[in-house]
User: Which sequence fits this backbone?
């Protein structure tokens, strides 16, 4: 989903796609997509895992990924999850162009055939005869010596943050939605446009720590760690592609904990002219086609209001909700914020307390 990777600003698809293809072609790697773990038994070196293969209504062994079914499908109202619901997709779809495996799946909540028994156009146009409307969930068992948990994260729900008008203003978006708007394969073809009217934003305001370091109970008490750096990345990309665009960033503190991270942030300020404002935002509201961002400037000791065309929220991250189920299956430990805990933060940072279970990424 990411357009460019930090800190080199290289194309993420150019890096990941060859690696995904290598995995698919390796005779030592079996990819079980659209599947969930149901049960785990055993111990290190001898785990038995029960896996649910969810019905995709398309035979993986026959589908060629030609997309003829997608072109003819009359149901086009399903929200595109990969594009953060910024546009729609067909009932039968491949999540994104470089998906591995390159196999379609049918959304039973959108498919006319599965809901009413009528239609069936995708089955008619499929030359490989891969469509199977009678497909059911199946269960398989596999034996493994070790397990790596990489369940990832998701941005927090912004329901409790009405002061930013995320639910009422189309031009208030999250950082991940901005990634999709800037991506060449995104809903706008890589051109940064306002979701409300499709015009180019001239003034963009970023708001840091939305839901992070929050003691009110609405968000998370911890620092999400990645927000400062990806906001600097976004600001630099926007200023480089659209030099006429003003970029403002409201922040509490800029945290740059890694090697050369502070230099990256300084480059955004000094080389790209990004306006960093130390202070918190109290309110965002619409007025005369603009988004008025009210905040404080602690350095100058004054209240400021910036008329913006687009507001980007750097939201806190939290573990994928399914991680509690995974932790139960693996008898792994989780902390008060539902993150899996390692055996030792310094000496064994990628091992869980359960022997043979390892942790990767944000989980």
Assistant:
């Amino acid at each position: 989903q990411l357009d460019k990777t930090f800190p080199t600003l290289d194309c993420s698809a150019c890096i990941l796609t060859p690696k995904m293809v290598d995995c698919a072609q390796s005779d030592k790697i079996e990819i079980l997509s659209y599947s969930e773990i149901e049960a785990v038994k055993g111990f290190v070196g001898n785990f038995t895992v029960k896996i649910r293969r969810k019905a995709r209504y398309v035979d993986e062994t026959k589908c060629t990924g030609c997309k003829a079914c997608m072109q003819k499908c009359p149901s086009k109202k399903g929200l595109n999850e990969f594009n953060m619901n910024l546009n729609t997709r067909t009932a039968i779809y491949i999540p994104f162009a470089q998906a591995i495996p390159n196999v379609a799946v049918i959304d039973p909540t959108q498919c006319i055939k599965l809901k009413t028994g009528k239609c069936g156009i995708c089955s008619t146009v499929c030359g490989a005869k891969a469509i199977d409307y009678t497909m059911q969930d199946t269960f398989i068992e596999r034996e493994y010596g070790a397990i790596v948990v990489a369940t990832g994260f998701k941005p927090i729900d912004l329901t409790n943050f009405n002061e930013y008008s995320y639910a009422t203003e189309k031009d208030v978006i999250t950082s991940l939605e901005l990634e999709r708007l800037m991506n060449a394969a995104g809903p706008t073809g890589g051109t940064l446009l306002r979701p409300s009217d499709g015009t180019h934003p001239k003034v963009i305001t970023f708001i840091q720590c939305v839901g992070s370091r929050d003691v009110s109970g609405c968000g998370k008490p911890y620092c999400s760690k990645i927000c400062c750096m990806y906001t600097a990345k976004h600001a630099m990309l926007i200023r480089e592609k659209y030099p006429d665009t003003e970029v403002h960033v409201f922040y509490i503190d800029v945290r740059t904990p890694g090697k050369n991270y502070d230099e990256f942030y300084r480059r955004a300020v000094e080389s790209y002219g990004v306006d960093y404002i130390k202070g918190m935002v109290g309110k965002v509201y619409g007025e005369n086609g603009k988004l008025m961002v009210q905040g404080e400037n602690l350095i100058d000791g004054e209240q400021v209001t910036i008329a913006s065309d687009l507001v980007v929220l750097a939201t806190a991250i939290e573990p994928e909700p399914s991680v509690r189920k995974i932790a139960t299956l693996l008898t792994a430990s989780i902390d008060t914020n539902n993150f899996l805990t390692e055996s030792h933060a310094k000496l064994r940072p990628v091992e869980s307390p359960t022997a043979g279970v390892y942790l990767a990424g944000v989980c």
Summary: Residues 228 and 254 are 6 Å apart (CA to CA). The longest helix spans residues 227-241.
